[in-house]
Design brief:
CATH superfamily of the largest domain: P-loop containing nucleotide triphosphate hydrolases
Strand content: 25-35%
Radius of gyration: 29 Å
CATH architecture of the largest domain: 3-Layer(aba) Sandwich
Structural class: alpha+beta
Shape: globular
CATH class of the largest domain: Alpha Beta
Largest sheet: 8 strands, antiparallel
CATH topology of the largest domain: Rossmann fold
Number of domains: 5
Number of strands: 31
Helix content: 25-40%
Strand order of the largest sheet: 11-10-16-7-8-15-12-13
Length: about 600
């Protein structure tokens, strides 16, 4: 055990985590030069296309020191985007140390600080690394000072490296051995293993990844999942290299995988504890934080017959991504579907993309919104959660409604301060403080309603700061809000899939926007269609699609005007009747286009 080192790599998005992991794999000869490719640990097409890590990956490497000692390194590469912070919290729970990677060309950014605090809370040993020092625009001295100020280390503790050229990788290897403590644990104690991830394999069932804290796990013995209370046989256990390597036995401090033949996704929970049936442990391991979904949206199959297939697809996705939560719901316009909770808009986009690519599921996503809290005026009423527009009762019966607020940290250059403050105030934000980290970097803290940032906030922030602003947030509390349910009506018939929960001050602009878009998208009918956005009985926006008109007087060649008038009156009466009995069907394409408007 004294020669095992468990560590993860934490950094802001695009600071070079995956590239550095590639170099570590090459130096330890875990992967051959022939099999080497960029982002070797990122096995999803989506990760390669976008150049981001979506899922954390564990891999075991061996490092032979000059003194002849062989060390086992268990590396967990983590995502850097704010939407995947849950993955980071799980990786940190399974480690004793962390490589804190800072890009020498960009300096410390918001997610760097956020992930660092997570690591410090878990008492991890931090190794600061200055990456991309080979770049012409690297600000080595300046960024080193930022790191010293942030974590209070000595200048000589910072390792200068380059994931691209391999410079400094040998120093990183030595630092991992010297600075990161070996795992503590008793191989003789009852088995306690923390499940930090799981994947679904269509041939083998659910494969759980774990870290053993105490005890020993043997192939073929009966194991118990502590929280679900189910017993299984460990058909295969082993270690995780670039491929899974089966082993007969794993000990305290090891990171590995277990295959028990489980086919049901509900039977394995990420964060659960594995123990043995013969000698069970007395308590489960307190792992990482619980998942807190931030954005909610309905996901519906385009064809209602695909509902069960969509359920299976979401359950399998949940195994690969434990931060996805969902429950069934139905809509008059879209039929049966699921109400899903996501960590952010990028997470929603990735799930949608994965459903299409990996499971061939074409889906419609409704307007994303956040979860509110409300209370009725009745004496015995309790606070309840409002997730959909249908959950919000009439304003007359409502005592209060509260919306979630977040504390947002934005790090940027001084020249963008004005435009960023304007953007945040436009989103109903409050500036709390403004601190200059260095002469050319300023950190601003805002309190913002979460509902205002789920749509286009991140994109707008990036465009007004020319990509130089970094953003991170934490939920703080719920505050009173003036929330209204904006209903969309076609010929006085409400379309529930297009209803939305919005703040009263934003309702009119949002209603106009959606009506205008629908006017362009809906096909014309033989009768007039009125598109209205309404709050209760009050209509706040309206567009009209005029009827297609047939020239019924074309057959009249001359003659008395009353003949033409008679035909026109007959047509008018027919159109009036048609409008009373006619239904307006919203085509699927129109749903997709209208919902895109809110991104």
């Amino acid at each position: 055990m004294k020669n095992i080192r468990n560590f993860c790599v934490i950094a802001h998005i695009d600071h070079g985590k995956s590239t550095l992991s590639d170099r570590l794999l090459q130096v330890t000869k875990t992967i051959s030069d022939r099999d080497m490719q960029n982002q070797a640990l990122d096995d999803m097409d989506l990760e390669r296309e976008r150049g981001i890590t979506i899922k954390s990956h564990a891999v075991q490497m061996y490092y032979d020191r000059a003194d002849g000692q062989r060390y086992t390194f268990n590396l967990i590469d983590t995502p850097g985007h704010v939407d995947f912070s849950y993955e980071v919290s799980r990786s940190i729970a399974a480690c004793e140390g962390a490589l804190l990677l800072v890009d020498a060309t960009q300096g410390i950014q918001a997610q760097t600080i956020s992930n660092l605090y997570l690591a410090i809370e878990n008492d991890l040993e931090i190794i600061p690394i200055l990456n991309k020092v080979d770049m012409d625009n690297a600000m080595i001295e300046e960024v080193s000072e930022q790191i010293i100020e942030l974590i209070g280390c000595k200048p000589e503790d910072i390792i200068k490296a380059s994931g691209k050229t391999g410079e400094g990788v040998d120093l990183i290897m030595e630092a991992i051995v010297e600075r990161i403590p070996a795992p503590k644990g008793d191989p003789e104690a009852p088995l306690q293993a923390l499940i930090f991830d799981s994947v679904f394999n269509s041939f083998r069932g659910v494969i759980a990844y774990f870290r053993i804290l105490n005890g020993t796990m043997k192939q073929g013995e009966k194991v118990r999942f502590f929280n679900t209370g189910k017993d299984y046989e460990a058909n295969e256990i082993g270690i995780l290299q670039m491929v899974q390597i089966p082993k007969k036995e794993l000990y305290a401090g090891d990171v590995g995988y277990i295959i028990t033949g489980i086919k049901e996704s509900k039977e394995i929970k990420v964060g659960d504890t594995i123990t043995t049936v013969a000698n069970p442990c007395s308590e489960s391991i307190q792992g990482f934080e619980d998942v807190k979904p931030m954005v909610f949206a309905g996901i519906y199959p385009i064809d209602n017959d695909d509902f069960e297939d969509l359920r299976d697809a979401l359950e399998k996705l949940q195994l690969n991504d434990a931060s996805l939560v969902f429950e069934p719901e139905s809509s008059a316009a879209l039929g049966f579907g699921f109400r899903c909770g996501f960590l952010g808009m990028l997470h929603l986009e990735i799930i949608q993309e994965r459903l299409t690519r990996e499971f061939d599921q074409d889906v419609i996503t409704t307007v994303p919104n956040v979860s509110y809290r409300a209370k009725m005026r009745k004496a015995d009423s309790k606070e309840f959660v409002v997730n959909t527009p249908n959950d919000l009762p009439d304003q007359n019966f409502l005592e209060y409604c509260k919306e979630p607020y977040i504390s947002a940290q934005i790090i940027t250059m001084p020249e963008f301060i004005g435009s960023i403050i304007t953007l945040c105030l436009d989103k109903r934000g409050i500036l709390i403080r403004q601190v200059y980290l260095t002469q050319g970097r300023v950190e601003m803290t805002f309190e913002l309603p979460l509902a205002e940032i789920v749509f286009d906030f991140y994109d707008r922030l990036k465009s007004i700061s020319r990509g130089y602003a970094s953003f991170d947030y934490q939920p703080i509390d719920y505050r009173d809000t003036d929330l209204v349910c904006l209903e969309l009506k076609l010929n006085a018939e409400p379309v529930d899939a297009l209803s939305a929960l919005v703040h009263r001050t934003k309702a009119e602009a949002f209603g106009r926007k959606i009506c205008k878009k629908l006017k362009d998208l809906l096909p014309r009918q033989q009768f007039v269609i009125a598109i209205q956005a309404a709050i209760g009985a009050k209509v706040i926006a309206r567009e009209t699609i005029s009827a297609m008109r047939k020239d019924v007087t074309a057959k009249c060649y001359g003659g008395d005007i009353s003949r033409k008038r008679k035909l026109l009156e007959k047509q008018k009466a027919g159109k009036k009747k048609m409008r009373q009995i006619g239904n307006v069907e919203v085509p699927q394409k129109a749903f997709l286009e209208v919902l895109k408007l809110n991104d």
